[in-house]
Amino acid sequence: MIEVRNLTKTYGDTVAVHGISFRVPEGRILGFLGPNGAGKTTTMRILTGYTPPTRGSASVGGYDVVRQPRQVRRIIGYLPENAPVYGEMTVRGFVGFFAETKGLAGAALRRAVGQALDECGLESVADRLLMNLSKGFRQRAALAQAVVGDPKVLILDEPTVGLDPVQIREIRGLIRGMAERRTVILSTHILPEASLTCSRVVIIARGRVVASGTPENIHSTLQESNRMTLLVRGLPDKVEKVLTEVPHVQKVRREGASRTHEEGMEKPFTPRTIEEYQVRVEKDHDIRAELAAAVVGAGLDLLEMRSVGLSLEDVFVHTITDETEGVRHDG
Amino acid sequence: MTASATAAAAPRSRRPGALVLTVFRREIRQYFQTPGTYVALAFFLLLSGAFFVLIVGQFVEDSARALAAATPSENAAALNVTQQVVTQLFQVLNFLLLVVAPMLTMRLIAEEKRSGTFEMLVSTPLGNWDILIGKYLAALAVCAALLAVCVAYPIVCATYSRPEWPVVWSCYLGLALIVAAYAAFGLFASALTESQIAAAVISFVGLLVFQMIGYLFKAGTLGLAAGALSIGSHSDNFTQGLVSLSDVVYFVVFSIFFLFLAAQILDSRRWRA
After folding, report:
1. Domains of chain B: which residue ranges?
2. Does residue A104 sit at the B interface (CB-CB below 8 Å)?
3. What are the chain A neighbours of B30 within 8 Å (beta carbons)?
4. In whole angstroms, what is the distance from residue A68 CA to residue A65 CA?
5. ipTM score of complex
6. Per residue in B205-241, pLDDT tens?
7. Do A78 and B120 touch (CB under 8 A)?
């Protein structure tokens, strides 16, 4: 539905987008993830035909964004960054105006507006002026503007920026609901947004794609190790030695302050000391059983063990850091 | 999905001009909801009314003096309500419109650019010309309303004297053409910037230059060219009851030219690096 091939956009000497390519099949939500200034908005503006690419091509619904901008604009709904609205209009008037620009009139227009207001939960404020509404409602009105007339493709630039957590959750719900019948591309610099809302994620940094795939996929391909957290009772030095000797363990680190008894932190380590240990394990090795056996075999008490995968956030920071500062793996 | 299948499903506009009308209606509504509109209207009506009173007062005084004079024929001009009132009023209204038109047009595009709605607007199926013409016609409609209110002045004159109606109408035609040119220039200025104030200043100064250019350069080829480009030299004839084709063409071309420039500016994001 959306196809971007080798897209490059330069502003003078500044390269905003550098040869990025991706596809969004029909009915999917693509999360376009990257830090601020990575080229997300530029890419979206190219997709809406607002600005042309310097090189490369992009098509939406089979239409080339440069050669057939009008056809593209007929099948997309666009929510620009910061969700601008006409403050002097009522919500209904605002959505109605955009329905008209999409060629709707009369009963069809009223039905489309009603549907969009309903879909975005705006009926209760439909006849109020936008400037008197909260940021959350204005954001929804801007979203309703994009959705009205049932476009096949939704392009949403930072749809949840500036909202409170409750509003964010609501907007995410709305977007997921909308994607049932549409193809959606949304940009964000917030990771949970991508992993919660999107079926596919493209991570870009400095105008280049650094990773793409399903959130789980990106996760596992970029992850070089697994992490285990163990809670063990025993002398820390001994615990660390025992854990390090288990095969495939890369690194052991004692976590945080001592958690002995209520007496306090100053108490010296004893065999009764309880500590948390982070164990980094080589990728694709499940050594939970070996770790447990080693700890128990050394006469220590294993109180807890859990596996902590790298969060998408870790991956994100990791890939971005790699991209901007050269390859750097700590540990 | 193939391109042709999507093409068939894409909604089409009903008829040409429907989108212009959509933009026009929104802008008219916006005019009524913007405080600036009322400020501009109040400014225009108050000042034009005040000037009308002054002009008429002066005329009455001059007439009284002329009647009292020994040889009234020498002061025949002073008794001519058309020249003493209608023509003067034309000059005043012309100048007031020069101030008011930028106030009415400054918001049109600059504010949309500043708030970000412009990006929303141009990613709808609206074309640049739909947007421009819709906004331009809305500005013209407000200006036309102003001019319509000004019909009161000649009517008041007509109650107490006999103005030459053809001159009155040619003055009106002149003002209508002038305001069309002002609005086109104002729209162009508004497309240049994101700041309403900058747009207003650009259009006021720009229009002032176009007004004065004919008076600034008088000699030689430069004077000829300046006269041909000047709004001032093309509006004088209307006050004499003369409607010349060249004047009408000048204002029409002036308006189209600046609308065209505005369209180029809107389009420039597509080719500017």
Report:
1. 21-272
2. yes
3. 86, 88-89
4. 6
5. 0.85
6. 999 999 888 777 777 777 888 888 888 888 888 988 8
7. yes
